[in-house]
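Researcher: Here's the sequence for the chain we discussed earlier.
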Amino acid sequence: MKRHRHKKEGMKSTGDRSLWTVSFVYRGLLFSLIILGIVLIAGTIYGVFFHSSPADHVQITVSQKSGQSRQGQTFTGIGRIRVSTSGSQRGMVIILVTFNYYPEDRAFSEELALRVKDFRKIIEDYFGAFSTVELQKKSEGSIKTDLLSRFNAILRLGQIEALFFSDFMIVG
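Model: Thanks. This is the structure I predict for it:
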């Protein structure tokens, strides 16, 4: 009987060791989780209060009539577009359309991002409908007005105030 008791006592000590090992692992994991949480919170605080905005985004201050100012940014998501013109002598239009928007209006900003393909299609359809000669006769202002009205016709949550052409070449 002594041996039998001895075996049971040996099992208890082995069980105590595995319990201690598991407890040690859990404590280590808990400590790591706490450290990770502190690092995330500190990084967030640093990013919000001490990090400057990226240089890629151009910020423009627009004064309103009420005397307040809002931070505007230039929407460049449409990108540079190359469109073939119609007519017997085909040419090409190369254009980069931009406009100002206010990122604090999140709903409108999201709509703009979702409408990029639509904007590109409007530009392609517009310039593709004219010959090179017809486009050269049109003023840049009338082209901007036409495109602006077509852009605003598909927008539901806001309106674009003005369009800007960074690149605008008619190659014929």
